[in-house]
Amino acid sequence: MALNENEVLAGLAEIVAEETGIEADQVQMDKSFTDALDIDSLSMMTIVTLAEEKFDVRIPDEDVKDLLTVGDAVKYITKAQA
Which pLDDT value is given to residue 82? Predict the structure, then answer.
């Protein structure tokens, strides 16, 4: 069963919190991974890998560069589950 955007956001926020120590409530749709959340490329790849496992989706490396904001990632994951 595909999750809705709010459910994906909550799950992604948990992953980001575990990986970076950033509070889950700071992980919001409009936040940029690099600018607002200060997530480096190594942490981002770990977050992507954990998200693939958690949401049972595949996020090719060439698509990761397009996931600039939390919202981009949530929409990508939501669509990839469908």
Answer: 75
Superfamily of domain 5-81: ACP-like (1.10.1200.10)
Average confidence (pLDDT) per 10 residues, the chain, 82 residues:
93 97 97 97 97 97 96 97 84
Helix ranges restricted to H, 1-82: 5-20, 41-55, 61-64, 70-81
> Using CA atoms, how far apart are residues 63 and 1, in angstroms rounded to an integer?
23
The partner residues of 69 in beta bridges, in order of sequence, read: 32
Coil/strand/helix, residue 41: helix
Cα distance between residue 36 and residue 27, in whole Å: 9
Question: What single DSSP character describes residue 69?
Answer: B
User: So where are the chain's domains?
Assistant: 5-81
